[in-house]
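Q: I'm building a small set of examples for a reading group on sequence design. Run inverse folding on the following structure and report the sequence directly after it, with nothing in between.
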């Protein structure tokens, strides 16, 4: 989703009308890396209702998007409501840059028991050929 540069509305409309081939979405050439932040215990038992902090500061990281999955609003605060809580995407000219941005945004977000893999796109970034 973060790589879609234009045309998403036309593609969705085409899908709704049964004419997917009539519209094309343009994709940016940027790399995109997404890291899932999960609840402690996931995929087994996990606690919900834990306050999530740092979403505002994570949004300040250049070229990142935080997608909510297992979250909900309670009393004006964002709290956990599922195992896969957030997906944090970073864009960049290179995979390494996109990866760095995604992990920087993740480092700003916190909730009790939060965890995420630390090796997402590591090999791809190391093997990347400059454009």
């Amino acid at each position: 989703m973060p790589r879609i540069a234009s045309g998403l509305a036309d593609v969705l409309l085409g899908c709704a009308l049964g004419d997917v081939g009539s519209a094309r979405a343009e994709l940016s050439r940027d790399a995109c890396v997404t890291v899932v932040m999960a609840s402690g215990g996931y995929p087994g038992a996990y606690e919900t209702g834990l306050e999530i902090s740092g979403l505002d500061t994570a949004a300040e990281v250049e070229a990142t998007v935080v997608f909510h999955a297992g979250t909900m609003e309670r009393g004006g605060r964002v709290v956990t409501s599922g195992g896969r809580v957030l997906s944090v995407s970073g864009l960049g000219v290179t995979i390494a840059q996109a990866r760095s941005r995604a992990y920087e945004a993740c480092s700003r977000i916190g909730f009790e028991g939060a965890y995420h893999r630390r090796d997402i796109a590591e090999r791809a970034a190391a093997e990347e050929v400059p454009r």
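The longest strand covers residues 84-92.
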